[in-house]
Write a structure and sequence with these properties.
single chain; five-stranded mixed β-sheet; 35% helix
């Protein structure tokens, strides 16, 4: 049999077709989404999934299920309640996919799924209390306590990218609040700040990383600001959640681990 894994990020959608071990990618599709409405993105999602399934090799069970990771607020029923950057609200993507493809669909926030990753692989070393922080176009967190995902009363416990870290922020966040963590540490926020201090504008994190590696003092200033606000958010997680360990996924930190 085979399964489809679908990731809906702020600026792009990625989809892969795998065998049931999850170790062999049979086919892959990817397309941009920023600024598009849900109907537009859903149409492209279906086109991508149809193409993947057309490439699926024959097997006794065929497609057995679809897993969806969403960079937004998902409630306990699997309903997408809010993706601030895209302006999507109250979307039942899970039911739409189940009706179209006639297989079980599992949909959750990308932070929760990232936190479940090591557990799903049977790691005996997984901490009983773990926070997994995904820093990208958005910031999401998966929280593990006593070996289980902590979701909160409504399922919104991982929307930590929108906790306030600066009460004096004059610019409104896409969620409607002011001073959210995403306004300082998401990839777009870092690039936007960099373009206020660098003499030549940049459009990607790779450009900033190159400048930092060449010891550009203004680029180092951008990195220091990112690290400061990242530390504020992580400290809040530590004192609220009292976790045993934190795992961070960040393009900047991966490129500049020192």
């Amino acid at each position: 049999g085979a399964a489809v894994a679908l990731e809906i990020d702020i600026s792009q959608v990625q989809a892969i077709l795998t065998d049931l071990s999850g170790e062999r990618v049979l086919a892959r599709e990817q397309f941009p989404t920023l600024g598009e409405s849900f109907p537009q993105v859903y149409h492209k999602v279906c086109q991508a999934l149809d193409k993947l399934l057309a490439e699926m090799p024959p097997s006794p069970y065929g497609l057995v299920g679809i897993g969806v990771a969403v960079h937004g607020v998902v409630d306990l029923s699997g309903m997408i309640r809010f993706i601030p950057r895209l302006g999507w609200r109250n979307i039942d993507l899970r039911s739409l996919l189940e009706e179209r493809y006639h297989v079980p669909v599992s949909l959750d926030n990308d932070g929760n799924l990232a936190a479940l990753g090591p557990e799903g692989q049977g790691s005996e070393a997984l901490p009983q209390s773990l926070a997994v922080v995904n820093v990208g176009d958005s910031i999401s967190t998966g929280l593990i306590t006593n070996g289980e995902v902590f979701r909160g009363f409504h399922g919104f416990a991982n929307a930590i990218g929108h906790h306030t870290i600066n009460l004096d922020e004059p610019v409104q966040c896409s969620c409607g609040k002011y001073g959210c963590w995403e306004q300082y540490c998401s990839n777009g926020a870092v690039i936007a700040y960099a373009n206020t201090v660098l003499p030549q504008p940049i459009s990607t994190l790779e450009e900033l990383i190159t400048l930092i590696r060449h010891q550009n003092p203004l680029a180092r200033q951008v990195m220091d600001r990112f690290l400061t606000y990242l530390a504020v958010g992580l400290t809040n997680i530590i004192f609220i959640f009292d976790c045993q360990a934190i795992a961070i996924s960040s393009e900047l930190l991966s490129a500049l681990p020192y």
